[in-house]
Amino acid sequence: MKAVADSKIKTRIAIVLVIVAIICVAWALMPASGPSPASGTATGASSGKGKTRLASESLDPRLRLDLLENSEKVKYEGKGTNIFRTGPEPVEISKAKISPLIRQQQEAAKLTAQLPPPPPKILLSYFGISNGKGEKPKAFLSQGDDVWIAHEGDVVNRRYKIVRISPTEVEVEDLLNNNRQTISLKQG
Predict the structure, then answer these.
(1) Thinking of the domain 125-184, which architecture would CATH place it in?
(2) What gap in Å lies between CA 67 and CA 52, rounded to an integer?
(3) Given 46, 76, 82, 129, which is the most exposed site by the fewest CB atoms within 10 A?
């Protein structure tokens, strides 16, 4: 019987603790009481009805036209600066008188800047020729560690076509850039 009495006491203590915990949580979640800027008085805030009245005023769904009219009357008077750009604003410099010679040089520089870049140099080296009786001449060409032996009309490195072979030079066409260059025989 004593075990049943202990069990009832423990159950009652647990119920009281749960009720106290619920009251503490509710107290922490309630808004603080005090005068609201909208009401201007502290008397309505101290009563339970005042709290609900203040909450309903802050959640008022009606449109406040007086506040909208005040905001429409405000004129923006900025400096004209770009708020998305950092650093100082660029200063506009007036153009000084330029002598005709300098002006011609500037125009020539603009024209050369508008020209397309020259085609890239062919990086093949011509280091020898083989000319046997009754056969076409063969050129010995290299690029880095790669070496090719080519006749006129052959394509080397899937890019360069051998146009003409002579004992002192070879004429090569770059098939990708559509340009021709003459490569001299490399001595040594």
Answers:
(1) Roll (2.30)
(2) 24
(3) 76
pLDDT in tens, 55-69: 555 667 788 888 888
Q: Using CA atoms, how far apart are residues 156 and 122, in angstroms rounded to an integer?
A: 12
pLDDT tens digits, one per residue of 27-52: 888 876 555 554 444 444 444 555 55
Q: What single-letter amino acid sits at 159?
A: R
* Per-residue burial over 20-52, b = 16 or more CB atoms within 10 Å of its CB, e = otherwise: eeeeeeeeeeeeeeeebeeeeeeeebeeeebbe
Instruction: Give the 3-state secondary structure of 43-108.
Output: HHHHCHHHHHHHHHHHCCCCCCHHHHHHHHCCCCCCCCCCCCCCCCCCCCCCCCCCCHHHHHHHHH
- Residue boundaries of the structural domains of the chain: 2-35+43-56, 125-184
SS3 128: strand
**For residue 148, what is the enclosing H or E element?**
strand 146-150
160-165 sheet: strands from edge to edge = 155-156, 160-165, 169-174, 179-184
